[in-house]
Amino acid sequence: MITKLLSREECAECRLCCSFDSYDLWETPVITQQCHDRILGEFKPDQDFLDLDDHYLLKMQQEPDIDLYYCSLLDHDKGCIMGTEKPFDCRIWPLRVMDLHGMLVIVLSPVCPTVQKRPLCDIQAVAKELAPEIFAYAKAHPYAVKKYVRGYPIMLTEDK
Question: Domain locations in the chain?
Fold first, then answer.
């Protein structure tokens, strides 16, 4: 989905989006029931999850002697074991959907080093193109919408 902005090769080199410090574990991708079932059935039958009523989070182990958690679906040699079937949050990263005072907004994660080199107009164009799908997903899966975090540049707001 986001390949209009970032190439698979650029993402495979970086993999920053596949790692989390303890303070940014809130960015862990939300896993729907359907994605949960696919992970267990097709990709990683021994995957552990945190069960949160109507959605899941992947359980990740902290790296020894460092405050870092890698996504449990990351193969350090090949990349994401799910390929193009990644969870929605991963497919749209470094874009995020957040709630700003009751309004859905598409924001840009400020930590993606590759996208920081792209012209802002290109990023906004991709956000606008993906907006219908992102906002539809957010409405169908409200638990996937994060509360707005200051410092995340807003690319687009939902038209009401």
Answer: 2-157
Q: Is the pTM of this model over 0.85?
A: yes
pLDDT tens profile 39-92 = 999 999 999 999 998 899 999 888 999 999 999 999 888 888 998 889 999 999
User: Residue 23: which of 111, 90, 139 has the closest Cα?
Assistant: 111
- Which residues sit opposite 56 in a β-bridge? 31, 51
> At 107, which amino acid appears?
V
Residue 87 three-state SS: coil
Q: Are 39 and 31 in contact (CB under 8 A)?
A: yes
| DSSP label at residue 81 | T
Contact 53, 71 (CB under 8 A): no
